[in-house]
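User: Sequence in, structure out. Go.
Assistant: Echoing your sequence, followed by the structure tokens.
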Amino acid sequence: MSGILYIIGTPIGNLEDITLRQLRMLKEVDFIAAEDTRVTRKLLSHYDIHTPTVSYHEHSGNTVAQRIADRILAGESCGVVTDAGMPCISDPGEPLVALCQSLCIPIEVVPGPSAAIAALAASGQHTARFTFEGFLSVNQNQRSAHLEQLKHEMRTMIFYEAPHKLCRTLKDMAQYFGSDREISLCRELTKLHEEVRRMTLLEAVAYYDLQPPKGEFVLVVAGAAPTEQEKPTLEEAVVMVQRLVDAGEKRTQACRIVASQTGYAKRELYAICSGVDA
């Protein structure tokens, strides 16, 4: 009988941010597939957990993933973890989950902290609608294409970035999104030097040119402002009124509706429409 793959969240910095269920599952699974076994071992040691670990990272390839899946198919249970936060989100655990899905291996999620959601909550940006964009490519053509595609994105955008790439990323964002676009830079979340700075991209570029960035960053970028629709001409507004009248609306009401939509005065529209009928 097949075992189970458990997707187990881990703290993003503060080791106290772990649930009772996560601790129990880290103890109960037969083995743990870890992005970096050295990082995971620190967490396990802190809680006196001695479950065996195997390495599974972005360079592991299909062979290692298949080997893990074969063990689960043989009846062992496996917990997949990342260095910090929820595995399989912008993370090498994603192909392993896809493989297990294709093999009909049962999968259960043991949720935990997420740096993206934690940063969004603390950012002060709009949170109702957002898009997670992960890391920008180091390839300039792919990077430019990605930012060009997002130039008019109206949802809040969340990116991950390493400190040594931050200044380049901020300058590229200012080029594509505009230097006055707001950004919240969330650094070292849940750790001793946690910091959230909200400023424009221009201010962020200037600040980090003087203050070398340290620690891992989550960038929460405000969405683009809605583009204003071009105001119709007076002649087009008159046509709009006439269409409403033709559909059975009273002329007074039709002029009121179109006036609210276009900004033209109701009295002006009514006078012109009366003259058209005449």
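User: And one key feature?
Assistant: The mean pLDDT is 92.
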